[in-house]
Amino acid sequence: MEKSITVFQLKGSEYEMGVKQGTHFRYEINELYRKLTSSEEFLASKPFLIPKFLYKGLATIVSSGMIKESIQEYFPSQWRFLEGLSEGADISLRKLLFMQAIDALGTQITNYKIEKNISTSFNHCSAVGVSGSKSTTGGVLMIKNWDGPEYLAEYTIFRNIIPSGERFSTIGSGVAGLVGINNGLNEKGLSIVYNYAYPKDIGDEGVPAMIIIREALETCGTVKETIDLFKKYPRIGGSNVMMADKKGDLAVLEVGPSNVEVRREDDEGQKGWLICTNHYLTSAMKKLEVSRDAIYSEGAAEVFRGKPVHKTSLLRYENAREILKNDSPEQISLDFLNNKIQCSHGRENKPSEFTFCNHGIKISTGFGVMVDVDNEQFYAALGKPCQKEMENLSEQIKSD
Ligand SMILES: [Zn+2]
Question: How many Å lie between the centroid of ligand 1 and the Cα of residue 70?
């Protein structure tokens, strides 16, 4: 199997760690910024992925300080990391903030028939968690496939962050130019994976989810503490955040700018596992979501036009549920989750944008992660899980 993953280790004060990440990935960070903002040629070569609205939306958010002030005020430690990142990568804070905001803006879908406007989603992720009563380890097991545009997958990095002071160390995935963590595990065994969700209103002032997730992993030991943390701070964007801890708690937080709801069972009341894709399941959050009948309209990217907004999310959810309900052993192992769900191409074995292992044309699975919560093992495969073997990153950092 090709290309194994290198875990990038950060140690020290927030500022020092930011400098180190920035220095190491200076080229990638500046290149990503250019790709996101410039250039007719980039827009032309990737016709829909970075629509102009996004540029405008990000510019607005940044210029009005909508995320800047929130990060500074509520997460000063993440802010210092950002300052270090700016120094190391030799890129302005304004440009870096611009990149941090993608995370939230990407969850804004507006180009559909029920309401007019101007944007399109670009990440579709899927996750499954199995509770201790159903797992072979007696603790929670989780898997997650990250789906997005290829150009963004190229900037995925895996970090082992060891902050000085009281904060917990973590292992997880992120993006070269971003402070936050999208999927990770901390030294207390708390594990969090992140999926986009699509509220009608993404809010206009707050902290993007990846930064809140990093804060949670560095300061919380349990699901309960993490829920409180999410509720406490202003948020921008929508997300379905799956989390588990060593006590065996497993939950999905359905997050929007105005609400946070907790889900511990599926829509049929099943409790042995949780599935989470990009639609909300709690009734409170469903009301705030882009309508289930919404269809991408003419203004949307070409590959989306005419398609129901939530179709891929609903079908990926169904793909996993069918396997868990009808095809799973009494006790479920990480291998089973990897081989049978993470690599699944649906009942007909036809890989597509509607399968858990996502093979969409413009948006597809860029990497997968697995977590054995009880044994504190974090695994990842860069590329599609059906083509790449999982590597145990926790073992790798232990032997380094
Ligand atoms: Zn596949």
Answer: 39
Residues by chain with Cβ below 5 Å of ion ligand 1: 351, 357, 384, 386
Q: What is the Å distance from ligand 1's center to 342 Cα?
A: 8
- What is the tens place of the pLDDT at every residue in 293-313? 888 777 666 667 788 888 899
pTM of the predicted structure, to 2 decimals: 0.92
Task: Name the class of domain 7-399.
Answer: alpha beta
Ligand 1 center to 352 CA (angstroms): 8
The residue ranges of every structural domain in the chain are 7-399
**Ligand 1 centroid – CA 295 distance (Å):** 26
pLDDT at 144 over 80: yes
Range from 5-9, 153-157, 217-221, 300-304 carrying the lowest mean pLDDT: 300-304
Between CA 242 and CA 391 the distance in angstroms is 21
pLDDT in tens, 230-249: 999 999 889 999 999 999 99
